[in-house]
Amino acid sequence: MAKTRNATLLRRGAASVGAERVESLEAVPDIVLGAYTRISDDQEDELTGDRRAGVGRQFEAIEQLCRAVSERESAWKINGPAYEDNDVSAFKEVLRPGFERLLLDLDSGVISGIVVYDLDRLARRPKDLERVIDIYDRAARAHRILHFRTVHDAIDLSSPDGITLARVMVAFANKASRDTGRRVAAKHRATALTGRPVSGTRPFGWYWTRHEVALADGRLLPEVIKPSSKGNQAIDAAEAGEIQRIADDLLLGCSINSVVRDLNGRNIRTSKGNPWSGATLKQLMLSPRLVGYRVHQGEMLVDPKTQSFVKGQWDPILSEETWGALEDLLMGDENATVERRSEAHRDYFLSGLLRCSECSGPLHGNARTEKHFYYACKVRGGGMNGTGGCGKVSASGVAVDEIIGALLKARMRTVDAGQPEPTGWEGGGALEVVKSKIRADVDAFSTATGELAQRILAQLRGLQEQADELRMQRNAWVHEQGRQQRLRTVGAEVWHELSTADRRAYARAELEAIFVRRATRRGNRFDPGRLVPIWRSHAPANA
Q1: pLDDT greater at residue 242 or residue 431
Q2: pLDDT tens digits, one per residue of 449-467
Q3: In the predicted model, is pLDDT for residue 303 greater than 80?
Q4: Quick check: helix, strand or coil at residue 232?
Q5: CATH classification of 206-221+230-336 is 3.90.1750.20, yes or no?
Q6: Separation of alpha carbons 476 and 478, rounded Å
Q7: For residue 332, what is the DSSP state?
Q8: What is the value of pTM for the model shown?
């Protein structure tokens, strides 16, 4: 490198030399780079509430680097807003939108390089680094210069040595992430075994409190002093009441979608403040936390010391019997699920219950005018199993709805409102005995061999059959208790205040079907004798 002739510079003067340097820098075209920032968990700033403090600090450091390079080398400019992935891991299999935009702009020529705070901000998985290297290789073959720089290291991805160094650094970062992941997973499992709730979004039905909480089973949760903890969870009476109401509605036969419409119609929102959806509601009602059990990685957690399910540090909202019946209902036969979904889209009170006496096909509601509609057997696609119906039977929808509604209201009056509340399912003790025997046999089977193991296995099968039968009896009891409770609280005076979906749910709980005979005489007056209701077995025959 040629030595600087300082005496010559002295003769020319500092002002002249400085002007020449400014002109030379201005002559260099701007190099537009992409500033990429990422952090896995950007904690909220306690003073400002800002959840972008981490990526903000990274961007400030990148800007300082670009200014320093521009003063002594090339004119480095950042392309508009940063390519940012806040609260996004570079180790997990998740989409990073900012990273994908960065690679797209780099490959298409929108930017001429990447600047990051550190290499592990850009990539922690070797395959992500290789995607970046491929772009730099293609650019080199096309004689296009791409730059790469981190705040802390000068890594040249256009050279073999720089690529090797980057690969080694990412491999070590990947190993560090795996080690951290194992430690974090072990910590989360240990926390779950204590029954402590996850310090995330408030679950619907409970609220966070830092005060002391006395649980119904006698456990006492002390006052929470630790600033980083959200505290204890106590039952929110209003939301718990909604959960119990939802359980009653579903067990009585209301569809998921009709319950969702009711919640959203009353402006009841999820704990995040969002409207309800069928998937969100189903997830809530299937959660074991409703009956007080801790879940870890999607499953109820078993304590290895006691061989029992871990109880959460909160009070349950539903009984195990009710929750078990809900699971059987919501995770039952796929055909039943399809029927419940289609039920939610019906606009007519007796859709799905009315049957043609000629072909046994369903009668469908059809509106002739705004004030009049009728139920009719359809010739095309209206019969059993998707085949065509006979088309020979139709009936006035208004008349049929009024007659069946009157029959249902009459049944409600027969329920004894003064009847004492049931204390519980009488088979609960027997089910617990069977479950205890199953646990004992499972423990014995784990160490047994040969003929003894075969005998224990056969006994286990028999015990499981007993447990399944008892659970079926329990679910039937829960369903009947829900029906009786609803009949106690809903009478003729509020029948017309109920939604069509709720009235249909009552009808389906009481009726197997309603056969409609063909009309035998002409006239405007509907003949009630054309209706043949088939009541469910729990209903009195003379009703």
Answers
A1: 242
A2: 888 888 888 888 888 888 8
A3: no
A4: strand
A5: yes
A6: 5
A7: S
A8: 0.45
